[in-house]
Design a protein that fits this description.
- The complex is a heterodimer of chains A (77) and B (885).
- Chain A is of the alpha+beta class and 77 residues long.
- Chain A has 2 helices and 4 strands, in the order E-H-E-H-E-E.
- Helices cover 22% and strands 32% of the residues of chain A.
- Chain B is α+β, with helices and mostly antiparallel strands.
- Chain B has 6 domains: 53 residues, no CATH class; 125 residues, no CATH class; 99 residues, no CATH class; 169 residues, Beta Barrel (Barwin-like endoglucanases); 135 residues, Orthogonal Bundle (Enzyme I, Chain A, domain 2); 151 residues, RNA polymerase Rpb1 funnel domain (Topoisomerase I, Chain A, domain 4, Orthogonal Bundle), CATH 1.10.132.30.
- In chain B, 37% of the residues lie in helices and 13% in strands.
- Chain B has a 6-stranded mixed beta barrel with strand order 8-16-9-15-14-17.
- The two termini of chain B are 65 Å apart.
- In chain B, 33% of the residues are buried.
- The chains are: A alpha+beta (77), B alpha+beta (885).
Amino acid sequence: MKKDILKHELVPDHVILSESEVSKVLKKIEAHPEQLPKIKTDDPVVKSIGAEEGDILEITRKSATAGKFVTYRRVHD
Amino acid sequence: MTGILKKISQINFGLMSPDDIRSMSVTKIVTPDTYDEDGYPIENGLMDPRLGVIDPSLKCSTCGTKGGECQGHFGNINLARPVIHVGFADTIHKILRSTCNTCGRILLTDSEIFDYQNKFKTLIKNEESLTKIIKDVYTVARRDKCPHCEEEQEDVKIDKPVSIVEGNYKLTPSEVRERLEIITDSDSVILGVNAEKAKDGTQVARPEWMILTVLPVPPVTVRPSITLETGERSEDDLTHKLVDILRINQRLKENMEAGAPQLIVEDLWELLQYHVTTYFDNEASGVPPARHRSGRPLKTLAQRLKGKEGRFRSNLSGKRVNFSARTVISPDPNISINEVGVPEIIATEVTVPIKVTEWNLEELKGYIMNGSEVHPGANYVIRPDGRKIRIYDEIKETVAENLEKNYLEKGELGYVVERHLKDGDVVLFNRQPSLHRMSMMAHEVRVLPYKTFRLNLCVCPPYNADFDGDEMNMHVFQTEESRAEAKSLMRVQEHILSPRFGGPIIGGIHDHISGAYLLTRKSAIFNEDQVFQVLRKSKLPLPDRTGKTWTGKQIFSKVLPDDMNMVYRAEVCRKCDECTERSCKNDAYVVIEDGELLSGVIDEKAYGAFSGKILDHIVKEYGTDQAREFLDASTKLAVSGIMKAGFTTSTNDEEIPQEAKEDIEAYLYEAEERVDKLVAAYDNNELEPLPGRSLEETLEMKIMQVLGEARDKSGEIAESYFDINENNAVIMALTGARGSMLNLTQITACVGQQSVRGGRIDRGYSERTLPHFQKRELGAKARGFVHSSYKKGLDPIEFFFHAMGGREGLVDTAIRTAQSGYMQRRLVNALQDLSVNAEGKVTDNRGVVIQTLYGEDGVDPAKSDYGKVVDLDKLVDEMRIKSGK
C-alpha cells in the first residue's frame, strides 16, 4: 500500500516556482540561488512533485513562533 | 589601510616529501650535543646558529635579520632507517588494507574504480566533503583476492600505535614504504591521498611520504633554552627529544655500518621509532610516555597544540590582555546599577589614552603633575614619534613642560596621555563563566577606597554573582569607537530585559523585596518625619509638609511614573477560586492608576529579577533611562523601608504550638499505616495493577502518592499556624524574597520522602536498604521516608537516607554543568559566524541563507513582550484603568 506522503501532516507544502517567481523571490531575499538551502533530488517530496535539479521550491510550513512560515530551497543533486 | 581583495580559490592540505624537507632545511643536524665547553653552539648541532637567533643583539647567519625579527629556519636529520609517523599510522594501515600486497593496486574492480572516480568529481564540483566516500572506499576495498593480479591477500592489522602486522609477520617501516611507493597516483586519490600531479609536475602528497626518512628539525625559536638564575642552561623538551633521536640514529648508523647482527639493528630501529613517535605525540596510546629526568612526562609537539591549555584554545582563541583588572567583588547598594566601584589602586594602574587637544591640555597637564602615584594622575605620555615616556616624580615637571611647549609653540600634534581611570569612564565588567551576553556589561567607573570591586545588588542575577569570595574582571576601553559602542549597546541599563524570555533579568533581590513588602503592606503607616527620612535617603524630591500620616503605598508611588496604569496579581496571591480583586485579603491585587499605587503590595512580581512586572512595563513604555532611575530609587526605598521596620529571622519563625505538632504526628502516623495496608494488600495479591504498570510499579506509585500527600498535608497543618503579619520567614517565602514554603514546612513539620534515581531508595544491601530492616521490607521508613522535621532532628536511619538523596543532588549538578558546558561550546562553535541583516535574513559568513526571517517571525526576543510581539490583554487592562473602569 502506497501512501501519498504529500498529504501527511508532517510534510509541509512544497511548490515549484516558475522562472519569474524565482527571480522575484531572489530579489526579495537578496540571495543567489547558490546561497539558498538545498534539498536533495532524491528527497521523497522532490520526487513526488517531480522537481528537477536547479528548481527552487517554495516551502510553507507551520511555525511555532509565526504560525505560518515560507522558506525556499534549491533542488540539488 | 586599504589592500587588494583576493579570493582564496583553494587550499591544499598535503604531506611534505623528503625533498621538501631537505630543500627547506638550512643545515643537516648530526651531533646530539648542543653547546661546547665555552658555551658556544656546536656546528651541525641542535643549536646550530644557522637555525636562527633569539638574542636581539645577534644577527642571524642565514637571513641576516636581528634576533626577534628572524623567525628561524628548519634543519633536518637524515634517519638511518625509515620510521612511521604516528599521526599517519591509522591512514597507513587503512591504505595497506585496501591495496594489493603484490601489485599495489587498490582492491577494487575497474568498474568500481570508475564509479568512485565519478563520485569524487561531482563532490569536488559541488564543494562537498569527501570524508564519507573515502570511508566507504576503505570498507568496500577489502578483498581476499586482488581483482587485478589475482594474488591472495592476507589480513593487515595495526598494533597501536605504529606496528603494522600482516598475518603473523610484522612489517618493517621500509617494507611498508616499499608497498606505498608502488601505489599509482590515481589509486591514491580514491584512497584519500591527493597524489594527482599538477601541470608543473608537482605533487601535494604521496602515500609513502607518510613514512619518515628525513626528520625536519624546528628552529631554535620554537624550542628556546632558558638560563636559570644559577647560570645553568635548561633545554626545551623538544630539544631533549631531538637529542634522544640523534643519539639513537647515530648508534643505529654505526651498528649498521659495522655489520652488526640483524637483532641488534632491529632493536635500535625499534628504539628510534619509539623516540620519533614520542617526539610527535607523547600521549599516544600503547607507548609509555617519554619522561624528563625528574619523572615529568615531556611536552612534545602534539601536547603543545592539544586541549584546553594547547596553542589553539589557550593562545589563538583566547589571549591574555593589558588594561584589565581582577579582584574580589562586594556589594554597594548606594551606587547605581550602571556603576562599578573601582579600587583606587586599580584606578592608578589601568589607564585611558587621551589625545592632547587645545581644550584638554590644562587638564592633562594637571594629571601629569600629579604623577603616577596620586589618583587622578597619568602613567605615560606617548609622543608623536611613538615613544612612550613613563611618568616618574623626578621627571613629571619636565614632561608636562615639554608637552605644553611642543604642543603650543611647535604645534606638534598627536600627543597621547595615558591618564588614570576616573569617575564616569566606561569599562567592561565581566564574571566567568560568560554564558550569556549579560555576563559582560559596560559600567561607569566610581573610584572608591579599599580593594574590592563594588557592584549594585540588582546586577547580581545576570552575572550570577554573590559575595562569598567571587572575583570579577574589568577591561578598560582604549578607543573612542569602542567606548561609544559599549555605551550604546553594552550598558547595564540596556540589558534589563533578557533576550531569553523578553522580561527583566536585572531587578530587586532578597531584602529589596521584603523591604518593599514591609513598606507597602496595608498596616504600614508612617508619620511625616519618617517619610521624609526615607525619601531623602532614596534621593527623591521632597514634597511640601502637610502634617498628615502617609501610607507605605503613597511612599512607593513616588518612584512610579506619573502616567502609569497597570493591574496584575502579586507574588503573594494565593490563587483563590474566586478573586475579590481590590478587596483581596492578602492585598495581592495590584492596581496602579496614574502612577498611584492604589491597592496591592509590592513584592517579587513588581520589580524582582526574572519576574518584575512594573519594571518590565517601565523599560518597555518609558525606556531604559527611566527604568534605571526607577530601579535605583525603588531599591533604595525598599532598603530604607526594611530598616525602618527591622527584619530578622530565626528558628523561632518555624515554631508551631504543641497541638499542631500532635496533629502532624497523627497525620503522618496514619499515612504510614496506609502505606503498610498497601503493602499488605500487595503481599496478599489484592492490589489491582494500574493500566500499563506492573504490580510492583503500581504499589510504588501508590506509596509515593500517599507519602507525598502526607508531607504536603503536614506542611499545610504547619502553614495554617504561620502568619505573614508576624513571621519574617513567611514574609520572605510568600513575597518571593528568599526561600519557599516547602523549605519552611520541612523545617517545621516533615522532611518527606528521599529519592535516588527518581524513586524511593531501594539500594544498599541485598534486598534491603539497611540491615535494620527485614529483607524485601517495603514500609515507609525502610525505603527512605523521613518522618522527622529538620528542627526536631533526623534519626540515624533517616539521616543516612537524607545523605543519599543529598549526594545524588550534588553529583547531578556537577555532571550537569560539565555536560551543558560542552553542549554550549559546540553550539557556540556552530553558530558564531551567523549574522542577521537589516531585513531579518540570517546568513553565515559566505552569505548562505540559514533562515529567510530570524526566528521565522523576525522578533528580537529582547525587545519583545515575553517572546510575543505584543501582549493585548495587558494593553486592554491598561486602557480600562486609564478611562476610569
